Amino acid sequence: MVALEIEVEPGEVGFDADRLRRIDRHFEDYVTTGKLPGWLVLVARQGKIAHLSTHGMRDIESGKPVESDTLFRIYSMTKPITSVAAMMLYEEGAFELTDPVSDFIPSFADMSVYTGGPARNPQTRPATEPIRIWHLLTHTAGLTYAFNYLHPLDELHRRAGFEFGMAPDLDLAACCDAWAEIPLLFDPGTRWNYSVATDVLGRVVEVASGQRLDEFFRTRVLDPLGMTDTGFQVDPADADRLASLYSADPQGKARLHPKHEQMYDTAFEPPKAPSGGGGLFSSARDYHRFQQMLLRRGELDGVRLLGGRTVDFMTRNHLPGGADLETLAMGSFSEVANAGKGFGLGFSVVDDPLAAKVLSSKGEFAWGGLASTAFWVDPAEDLTVLFLTQLMPSSTHPIRPYLHQLVYQALAD
After folding, report:
1. How far apart (Å, rounded) are the C-alpha atoms in residues 137 and 201?
2. CA distances (Å), origin 273, targets 17, 39, 57, 216, 279
3. Who's near 80: CB < 8 A, 6+ residues apart?
4. How far apart are alpha carbons 179 and 156 in whole angstroms?
5. In angstroms, how far is the first alpha carbon of the chain from the final one?
6. Taking the domains of the chain in order of start, what are their residue ranges?
7. pLDDT in tens, 177-187
8. For residue 205, what pLDDT band results from cuts at 50, 70 and 90?
9. Does the structural domain 10-83+213-408 have CATH classification 3.10.20.740?
10. Which partner from 121, 127, 217, 406 sits 20 to 30 angstroms from 388, CA to CA?
11. What kind and span of H or E run contains 180?
């Protein structure tokens, strides 16, 4: 394995080294006060790593520190990889973005929309629009997540066995069929709601390619990019590198997640239903390579996954009427603040840096994961940033806005 290390002096790529160290001082306090078990931060500019730091523990109980090769559950940071996989097939003519999802998953034909009533007796009407592939990519399909706990339809997902993640006894095809039996929150294309849409997209990838999602990822995305640490399971030989999973107690302190043991054991087993919405494990080196491919508009080290214009297209705001998430989202859990941000084909996209009141650039695209991980790519500044830790949920502490302001204030060119 190639070691991850700083590749350039900060000043050579426009950073003030002393100001960059403010990132470490700020987040070291998160560990000292017990908010986070430990973390890794990587900042790169012009394709070179200018800042790489770790602090705290990957496993508090055994005293093992976070190291540059620690493995993390990246949860929803899987979604951009699934979106890239789907768009690779799009480039090959496997589908059009306007194709109905039912062309690939017949159970999604003739969907109904919730109009009222409790979960035990929901009232519905026929949907006015079929779910199309672009709806899956943009979370405008009308689907939801069991863990949202905001709507009767969320409860229907829990009743179907999707309390957290995939239903344990179903393969991906069966999961999609189960979701298709649940009414939609709204007519596709009219609102935004964080959901299992990317898991459904993963099934579209399977059907369109004729490969299981994990096999498509390995042969078409991960191996070509040299992402050797990334997959839907952890090699038992790497068990010691896997960070433990923590959740916040009522005081906001990191405590071992109640289901950690169960989730640790299953980390080494191939999943029956690979989750394109949240199932990957990865390392900082691997995800950094994925970010660099995106920054370079689809190419890295001579390997091209996507055409440059496709990446440009994916990272524009595709929400109806150019609306931002603040306007169109239904209030569900999200991995970003909503003001000033639209949504592209797999990423949040900054349309108005002023609206969010956080330092950023127009055109920056990003996403995060349930265990407080986060990344962004800023083409305007030739910048990528990665933050890895293992605390659920990601809304526990304000990590991402502080990380933004601490990175951008360090730019001195």
Report:
1. 7
2. 45, 29, 31, 14, 9
3. 290, 294, 346, 347, 367
4. 9
5. 34
6. 10-83+213-408, 98-209
7. 999 999 999 99
8. very high
9. no
10. 217
11. helix 172-180
